[in-house]
Design a protein that fits this description.
30% of the residues lie in helices and 24% in strands. By secondary structure, the protein is α/β, with parallel strands linked by helices. It has a 6-stranded mixed beta sheet, with helices on both faces. The chain has a two-stranded antiparallel sheet with strand order 7-8. α4 links the parallel β4 and β5.
Length: 218
């Protein structure tokens, strides 16, 4: 009698935080990532919203993402310890046309690192999204500073994104899932090296443009 081969199928569940100041596009990023659409008339999030995303990671692995959209108002920040509990990854979003929201992103990251970590004690993987790259008024000096910003603030990497034009939303999500999967298997940094990642070009940039994601040394 022929032996029947049974393929083991694995499901992973990760809680992911989407954090940043008000009106940087957090809800729009989630809407694009989960529902593949954009709504000009979105309402400002109050408190916490939730969304679910399923990713067929490979032939044997399904990843379920529980996305927590944390409102950026000051009163919400007082509750972040409760909201952050159990998180395995984070997207920190800022508006690429407003430098003040990048400064705020460092405060959100510090708050994140002070309130949640991996079992190893290392920070949970966090990716910085320079959102609204479709808009005019992008500060090129600011963009050129993001490698150093990520290194100084212990981000896994960064992407220029646009929820409106669907630029790098899926790529950023896939990159974060990869980092969470590595941490889940005890390999958080893959040889602890710089990792240059080709991403879709931002408006006005040449086809050869490459944005790099910095990977920290733990």
């Amino acid at each position: 009698m022929a032996r029947i081969s049974v393929t083991q199928y694995t499901e992973k569940l990760f809680k992911v935080l989407i954090i940043g100041d008000p009106e940087v596009g957090k809800s729009s990023v989630i809407l694009r990532y989960v529902n593949e659409r954009f709504d000009e008339n979105y309402k400002l999030s109050i408190g916490v919203d939730f969304a679910l995303k399923t990713v067929d990671w490979d032939a044997k692995t399904m990843v379920r993402l529980q996305l927590w959209d944390i409102a950026g108002q000051e009163r919400t920040r007082n509750m972040t310890r409760v909201y952050f509990k159990g998180a395995m990854g984070a997207l920190v979003v800022f508006d690429i046309t407003k430098s003040s929201t990048l400064e705020a992103a460092s405060k959100w990251k510090h708050d994140l690192d002070s309130k949640v970590c991996l079992d190893s004690g290392h920070p949970i993987p966090a990716v910085l999204l320079a959102n609204k790259c479709d808009m005019t008024g992008r500060d090129r000096d600011l963009v050129s500073s993001l490698d150093r910003f990520c290194k100084d603030n212990n981000f896994m990497g960064w992407f220029e994104t646009s929820a409106k034009d669907n630029i790098n939303i899926d790529e950023a999500g896939a990159f974060l899932v990869k980092q969470m999967m590595l941490c889940d298997t005890g390999q958080p940094t893959e040889e602890h090296r710089w990792d240059g990642i080709k991403v879709s070009q931002a408006p006005g940039e040449s086809q050869s443009q490459s944005l790099c994601c910095w990977r920290p040394r733990f």
